[in-house]
Amino acid sequence: MTITCVIMAGGKGERFWPKSRTNLPKQFLNISGNKSMIQQSIERLELLIDISKIFIVTNELYAELLKAQIPHLPHENIIIEPVGRNTAPCIGLASILIEERYPDSTMIVMPSDHIIQNDTGFIEILKTAVKVANDNGNIVTLGIEPAYPETGYGYIESTGVNEPVNDVNVYRVNKFVEKPDIEKAQAYLESGNYYWNSGVFIWQTAVIRKYIKELMPEMHDILQTMKYAFGKSDQNEIIATEFIKMPDQSIDYGIMEKAKDIFVIPCLFGWDDVGSWTALERIDELDENGNVIKGNILNLDTKRCIIESNGKLIATLGIEDLIIVDTEDVTLICTKEKAQEVKLLLKELRMQKLEQYL
């Protein structure tokens, strides 16, 4: 059984604006450490499999960025989405291409822009997940043990029945749960059998193809049309034409909320999805006043702020709980409680036809 991996790297990281931009989104930035998030993802996976079995799904805009940042990735392993259509079509397209090259394979699917601090622990969990996936055609997902009542993540509820494999706790999934309000998030935390949805999935390629056929028949038919075009002179044109017909649907909604035989492995390996600027408080060192400070900063009586300078001096006095990010052409100032709503500014920029700042 060949192990392959699909990295989803087509997102724009809009909540990390103005540093994450259309032409250089979050996954290509050095958020933590001296390498980009996607470079770190590749290095981590190469502890488990060869680069030839790693595939990246992205859009045409980022193909050259990928080639520059990961020059040893085979160019044919860069899968181009003609348009953005959410995670189910992204995974569906990757599955038929991998099925063609590695018919008897297991797929690991993961985002490109998450922080994982314990690489070794992550790889050991993946080895167990692959074993569980290969037993009776199971679907496996990695659940992050919640540290606080987070309202920005989806959750996975387990049955609470432990079926250990390789001395690792493995639970059957009861259901996937949408992002909760704070009261529900607190209840999930206290229950002990809810986990943050990491967006990492492991399954046999044949199994996910079977579930797509059963639960997303419209998408299955489109994928079959694409498959019939493999090897033909107009293969790329047919894939582009058919992909536009795909439903704009997540893999969670399309498959995971309806499939059977799903298992979750609870994990603690220093995970963070770096979903907004406030994530820096979890992954970077804080000063004595709880600030994250990067660059040329002078701060007095400044508490619990996130401040990043692009070179010019930023001086602060008597402020609390603010995000200040300075780039060449944009300076963002917002409260931390509005960090998840930064995309509203991008919507306004589009309305005012100020696309040069996107």
Automatic annotation (TrEMBL):
Protein name stated in the entry: mannose-1-phosphate guanylyltransferase
PANTHER family, A to Z: MANNOSE-1-PHOSPHATE GUANYLYLTRANSFERASE
Single Gene Ontology MF annotation: GTP binding
Top-level taxon in the UniProt lineage: Bacteria
Family: Belongs to the mannose-6-phosphate isomerase type 2 family.
Domain Nucleotidyl transferase: residue ranges: 6-287
InterPro entries recorded: GMPP_N, ManC/GMP-like_b-helix, Mannose-6P_isomerase_type2, NTP_transferase_dom, Nucleotide-diphossugar_trans
EC number(s) on file: 2.7.7.13
An example Gene Ontology biological process: GDP-mannose biosynthetic process
Catalyzed reactions: alpha-D-mannose 1-phosphate + GTP + H(+) = GDP-alpha-D-mannose + diphosphate
The MannoseP isomerase/GMP-like beta-helix domain, residue ranges: 295-349
Pfam families in alphabetical order: ManC_GMP_beta-helix, NTP_transferase
Species of the source: Paenibacillus arenilitoris
Keywords: GTP-binding, Nucleotide-binding, Nucleotidyltransferase, Transferase
